[in-house]
Amino acid sequence: MKDGHPVLASIRQRARDLVDVLQRALDLVEPLFGHLLVCLQQRDARHEAPLRVLDALDVVLDLLQALFFFFGLLRHFALPLLEAGIDLLVEKPIAATVEDARAISVAARRCGRVVAVGHVERFNPAWRAAVERAPGATVVEAVRAAPFTFRSLDVGVVHDLMIHDIDLVLSLEPGRLERVEAQGILATGGFEDVARARLVFSSGLVADLSASRISPQLRRTISMWSPQGVVHADLNAKTVEAVTPSDGVRQGTFVAADVPAAERAALKDRFFTDVLPLQSVTVADVNAIACEHDDFLAAIRTARPPLVTAAAGAAAVEIAARVIESLRCVRLGAAGPQRSATIPIQPRRKTG
Fold first, then answer.
1. How far apart are CA 46 and CA 150, in angstroms?
2. In whole angstroms, what is the distance from residue 136 CA to residue 37 CA?
3. Beta carbons within 8 Å of 151's beta carbon, 6+ residues apart
4. Which has the least CB within 10 A, 46, 94, 121, 164?
5. pLDDT digits (tens, 9 = 90+) for 171-210
């Protein structure tokens, strides 16, 4: 493979960062990545380009069964790996464009390889506990906000943050996306920094998603409404609370207007005990990233699909593209009315 090959160029561009990340992740990935790490470390010790060893890429591929990527994939990078029989765990989003995401998904099926996508919130124990308490959810409200970090400046907040919650909503199997309304704010001189989107699906589920990367506070919360009650999860704190109907509410025998005036003050104090009981839900003490890696390895060993497949990753990219196409953005400090804006998708980026 020649030095100018786009695969090698893409690899070299991230060589140093990848060596550092792989070293930190050694305990998790050594069974799969041991041979490659040895090569990388030997090269680095000799002060040579760390990934020059991949000039002999065909030889290295023969040593590997699987690869972990801490960034989204380029189509021309992923396809040769899949065709070489390599299973992949890829950071979200799976690709920069809808077309590339679909191509990777199709190639994974054609080659019979495992491609897992790093939508790690699927493994968040708070999300898992919340989903169990909200079967048949009809409304989802998600807020994902973070202070400005100067990271991911080559994408907007939809691909940087909101795509996490897009994937969570899609995991509920809400049907076909029928309508999108989206608004955004441009503040830092590049792509959208704040976005709010309403997604309406054919099942009737409505998802209201809000994402900001210029928030003073860090926040990752999601609420779900269902006939079983209302569930609120704090994905940062890994806590879940559920409001469930009492027997009187469930049977329709409780009518607030019928409560005698003399009893209302006392019942007000007991409202979230007697009428709509509020409960803290037990959340497992597990590491979401470790669970994600375990799921990937188990998928390889047992030939089952991973929790977040290439098809699921591609679906999240498609919905994100629909949100971006629908964005009406206002630029902070600009005079004049709100304007329509379509924020272009860049070919490469690293997201958080």
1. 33
2. 46
3. 350, 352
4. 46
5. 999 999 999 999 999 999 889 999 999 999 999 999 999 9
Q: Which position has the token pair 């959810």?
A: 137
Phi-psi region for residue 204, left (φ > 0), alpha (ψ -120 to 50) or beta? left
CA-nearest of 61, 159, 149, 79 to 115 is: 79
Q: How far is CA 295 from CA 86, 189, 291, 300, 335, in A?
A: 16, 39, 6, 9, 51
- For residue 38, which of 56, 25, 50, 24 has the smallest C-alpha distance? 50
**CB atoms inside a 10 Å sphere around CB 200:** 15
Domains, the chain, with CATH or none: 6-120+292-309 (3.40.50), 122-286+314-340 (3.30.360.10)
Pairwise CA distance, residues 232 & 225, whole Å: 9
The single-letter code of the amino acid at 241 is: E
pLDDT band for position 334 (cuts 50, 70, 90): confident
User: Which tokens go with 36?
Assistant: 């490659």
Q: In angstroms, rounded to a whole number, what is the distance separating the alpha carbons of residues 282 and 268?
A: 26
DSSP 8-class letter at 103: H
- Confidence (pTM): 0.77
Tokens representing residue 163 in the block: 């795509």
First to last CA, the chain: 32
Beta-carbon-side half-sphere exposure of residue 309 (alpha carbons within 13 Å): 16
**At residue 130, what is the residue type?**
A
